[in-house]
Design a protein that fits this description.
Number of domains: 4
Strand order of the largest sheet: 6-7-10-9-8-11-12
Helix content: 40-55%
Number of helices: 21
CATH architecture of the largest domain: 2-Layer Sandwich
Radius of gyration: 30 Å
Strand content: 15-25%
Structural class: alpha+beta
CATH topology of the largest domain: Nucleotidyltransferase, domain 5
Length: about 450
């Protein structure tokens, strides 16, 4: 359709010299007006229109085109498509639009047509992936693994992001659950770090949360990156995921997300109404409990001494009846309980998994917050929980296409802006860690770090 001088035209014919457009009302009122166009420039107008221009009709066409583009290129809800597509329209257009229900049906028709109205499989065995979803939007291989087993696992990654994984020394891994089609359990993603930018590189649909499935994904990735192993992999404190990563990438340092360490302590705080009340109401009580988290910033060899210093400090000694269950939990899970002959048992999460001293020194991320932010953004783009499998696959194709752009930007030296508050806290923690020397007062160091922490 051509818009020129306030009138709309439909394409009539074209040849090497020109394209002829005729008035869109030719069929309705035999309007004889035509335009000759070459290289997007109007060369000639032939005959006058039999009618006045209709700016309202033109605006309506633009609105429908806008709604159609949003419906095709996003996964937001039908209502959100209409809301976004009708922003800032004139009062005249508002009065001329059809009912909301009619526009909703239009959006649904567009989306159904684009997805070829494929049946939505109800079981993993019914899922047969068409070729269109095995490639990226640019036509390159995207689905790199499908085990076609009852424990179905799909792994998607583009050639560029496989190369990015090879060259990135720091990976993030995480799972999310609400965004996946109901026949799968989770979307498990691996993200690369380039500068300070964290970008999804691998999208895996898993049918469970078992170690064997994580190992399957990691083994596929290790194969396509030619056996390269990153220096560090950051993930949640989920033992099946951590053990799988350690088995497939034995030379990598497997680290737990510091945010989740804080969440573990927060859950223990909430088990006691008295401790919870004091944590909320008494700033010094809150600060001293956070010194347990601060142990992560000591040199690994000083963590046990730091823990023993804390639990014998005046604060913990004076509040032993209230806090014994928290220090016991921390010792059992993060330090290792002192046993016979003063030999500590193995902790559930060994110190090397959650210690952050070298992470801070190397300027690496302490948390998976960037990944959690991506989860939130991707979920909003879908517009609903547990979408149709075809809607989901189309969404990750679009996401991968967008991330190709982000990858190019990161490779060109662009950084992700950080909030000033976060930058300042990071710098203060780094200053304290770099100042730490043998003989430093451990209790003062832990309190200093705790000033800069939030649970």
């Amino acid at each position: 359709m051509l818009l020129y001088n306030g009138f709309l035209y439909h394409k009539e014919r074209s040849n090497a010299q020109k394209t002829v457009w005729r008035c869109c009302l030719y069929d309705k009122i035999s309007c004889p007006a035509r335009c000759h166009v070459l290289n997007d420039s109007v060369l000639l107008e032939i005959q006058k229109h039999k009618h006045a221009p209709n700016p309202i009709n033109i605006e309506m066409k633009k609105i429908y085109n806008n709604v159609k583009n949003i419906a095709r290129n996003t996964q937001i809800s039908t209502h959100a498509v209409i809301s976004r597509g009708t922003l800032s329209i004139s009062q005249a257009a508002q009065g001329s639009l059809p009912s909301l229900q009619t526009i909703k049906k239009y959006v649904q028709r567009i989306r159904n047509r684009d997805s070829s109205i494929l049946p939505n499989p109800q079981t993993l065995s019914q899922l047969i992936i068409p070729d269109i979803y095995k490639v990226s939007l640019s036509g390159e291989v995207f689905l790199i693994h499908d085990n076609n087993s009852p424990r179905r696992t799909l792994v998607f990654a583009s050639v560029r992001f496989i190369d990015a994984l090879k060259n990135s020394d720091f990976w993030h891994c995480d799972g999310t659950f609400k965004v996946v089609p109901s026949i799968f359990t989770q979307l498990f993603t691996i993200h690369v770090t380039i500068g300070n930018t964290v970008i999804p590189a691998v999208y895996s649909l898993l049918s469970n949360k078992e170690r064997a499935s994580y190992e399957e994904v990691f083994a596929i990735i290790r194969g396509v990156v030619d056996g390269n192993q990153p220096g560090s992999i950051l993930m949640d404190f989920e033992m099946s995921m951590m053990n799988a990563a350690r088995n497939i990438f034995p030379d990598s340092s497997i680290k737990g997300c510091f945010f989740h360490l804080g969440q573990c302590i927060w859950r223990k705080i909430q088990e006691s109404a008295l401790v919870l009340r004091r944590y909320k109401d008494e700033p010094d009580f809150c600060l001293n409990i956070k010194t347990l988290m601060a142990l992560a910033f000591l040199p690994p060899s000083d963590v046990i001494v730091g823990f023993e210093t804390l639990v014998t400090s005046p604060f913990f000694a004076d509040n032993i009846e209230e806090l014994q269950y928290i220090t016991d939990y921390f010792e059992d899970n993060w330090i290792g309980r002192n046993g016979h002959n003063n030999i500590r048992r193995n902790a559930r999460f060994p110190i090397h998994m959650w210690n952050l001293m070298q992470t801070v020194m190397d300027g690496q991320a302490r948390t998976n917050n960037a990944v959690e932010g991506w989860h939130s953004s991707f979920s909003k783009s879908l517009g609903s929980s547990h979408p149709n499998i075809w809607v989901f696959l189309k969404a990750i194709q679009k996401e991968q296409n967008l991330n190709e752009y982000r990858l190019s930007q990161a490779n060109a030296g662009a950084n992700t802006p950080q909030r000033r508050v976060y930058r300042d806290l990071t710098l203060r923690i780094e200053n304290l860690v770099r100042r730490y020397q043998p003989g430093t007062n451990i209790l003062n160091f832990l309190v200093g770090i705790a000033f800069n922490l939030n649970i």
